[in-house]
Specification:
The structure is a homodimer of 334-residue chains. With 334 residues, the first copy, chain A, is α/β, with parallel strands linked by helices. The first copy, chain A, contains 14 helices and 10 strands. In chain A, helix 6 (125-134) runs parallel beside helix 7 (162-171).
Chain lengths: 334, 334
């Protein structure tokens, strides 16, 4: 079985985005309506949005189950306030739940959290509990920068985040560290902000005692870990210069990397330097890169092809990457 | 000959930092003295600071000439205002000039620019001109985020920067894109902010027409290009999805990567995916990582060893990386 731990509902029916626009408009004009009831999406629309997209790719590429969450760029935690964010998160999460109910063999849910800049993360606990306990979700996406590119909240290793972490541990779910869109013109979302956030989070973990404080906490760093595997020597050296213990001891019981790296040499360095036990298969499809690589004739995000092409990878390692590690990190996966 | 295009004067005599502290103190207390004349450093002190450090490593590792600039973390463009920054930049650049005059075979200068958040970059032109025309410097370090981690100035591709770029072209010098320290607690300087800035700048270039506007402009992206080579497939795909031309056409006539990658697999992916003509040898010594890798018994930042170990690299490619490309990019190198 092949589990893809990183998929977003990027193909949701356009009614969803139209609703979001009404919600955003209503922030300026309270007379504009944005009742949740005004969003109507039929089961057939959901089926249609997936059959020719994620489901088609699952079949073609031979993957089985996707851990599916709302569109990351769409989370937009920087828009409005905590109420805006809660309303929008509930709608997005409910839609993921419908997807998972329609296709229980193909999708399992991970939730968007109702974060908002400057608002304590513990504010997200009720929605996390609802998604895990009532909707059967197996994880969440945690935005390390709810300001959308201004990085105005405390680092992920600050006690500011601990109440949410303690709830994650209690519910036995990991978080994928995943920013949303950027409202800072310096940062292209998928080409800079995403990778920067991955790199930033790793370095925050490296310099902190977070995992001493909460040893059961688990994070997946997406997009192949940002810059981290490429600079693994730099991080080993920085940890040593900072008189920390080894990266293995410091954080590899708690931090995992996905395989969203879209070319063969990049994938090889990931598989070479990061311990196999810390790598989870993922494609992020349909996401950051949607087209076919003219150099290979295959989709850039068909990451399974790169892994399958690594001749030196042992079968048991491939099994861990494709399934075993995901089951270990996402304990609720049956 | 082996040219290291990325070295900072991290070992400057402590009097320099003491002066800087007086300057910072005087921002709050104008009665505190911070006259430039109050900084006294002898030639012997300079020799001592280099003989047991950068010069020792040059000899041991077999490199010849370092393009040498003030300590990057020390630039601190976010401290004080444009006057503070100009005064501090002149002092740091003058010290680099003394280094280069004492050891003309070993060092050639690249300058710190007197940037300040919110202040138009053209304000840096007089100091750039002074350093190139009077002090014989061959390049400059350009900070894409003078705010130190708040990213409050426009992207490098905004016309805000163009007057400085035009002067760079007129003077025939490239810039290394290099941030300074971070005053945002989210970003560790050498472990996150540096790499993020490299990645961010590349993506800004990719999405812009900067090099159509100023075809002679040249940038070196340090630290192996941040996350870029590792995610080369992602960038090729994003460029394609954005209906841009190839990366080669878009920016590889203008953008170069250094080799500050501190482990063998990372170096190999850099040399594999980035065209050889776009790679410049560098070590960043003595910089981000100062210690010896227990896995190899050699310094992490002894990057020449990794390059020498790549068996498939042709001799002519090695020559380009070690010397030819640097002479092409830094036209003033005799």
């Amino acid at each position: 079985m092949i589990i893809d731990c990183h998929g977003h509902y990027t193909t949701a029916p356009r009614e969803l985005q139209a609703y979001r626009q009404r919600q955003i408009d209503s922030l300026k004009d309270p007379s504009a309506s944005c009742q949740a009831e005004s969003l109507e999406i039929s089961d057939d629309q959901i089926r249609e949005s997936l059959e020719s997209a994620q489901l088609k790719f699952q079949r073609e590429r031979g993957t089985d189950l996707t851990i599916f969450s709302p569109r990351a760029v769409g989370m937009g935690h920087h828009i409005g306030n905590a109420t805006t964010s809660l309303q929008w998160s509930r709608i997005c999460n409910n839609l993921i739940h419908r997807v998972c109910s329609l296709y229980p063999e193909n999708f399992v849910g991970a939730c968007q959290l109702p974060q908002s800049p400057g608002v304590p993360p513990e504010n997200c606990i009720p929605e996390l509990e609802r998604c895990v306990s009532e909707l059967g979700f197996v994880g969440c996406n945690l935005n390390p920068d709810p300001s959308g590119g201004h990085w105005s909240d405390p680092p992920l290793t600050d006690r500011w985040w601990y109440p949410l972490y303690e709830k994650m541990v209690e519910l036995n779910v990991p978080a994928m560290v995943h920013v949303s869109g950027s409202c800072n013109p310096n940062f292209h979302a998928t080409g800079a902000h995403y990778l920067n956030a991955d790199t930033t989070a790793f370095m925050q973990f490296l310099a902190s005692d977070l995992f001493k404080d909460i040893p059961q906490l688990k994070f997946v760093i997406p997009h192949g870990g940002g810059a981290v595997p490429y600079h693994w020597g730099r991080y080993r050296g920085i940890a040593q210069d900072l008189k920390r213990t080894s990266l293995q001891e410091l954080l590899l019981h708690n931090v995992y990397f996905d395989t969203c790296v879209y070319h063969q040499p990049g994938m090889e360095v990931l598989l070479k330097v990061i311990p196999i036990d810390n790598i989870l298969f993922a494609s992020e499809m349909i996401g950051a890169v949607k087209s076919i690589d003219p150099e290979t004739g295959h989709y850039f995000d068909d990451t399974k092809r790169y892994i399958d092409s690594v001749s030196w990878l042992r079968d048991e390692d491939r099994c861990k990457i494709y399934e075993g590690n995901a089951r270990k990190v996402y304990s609720h996966l049956r």
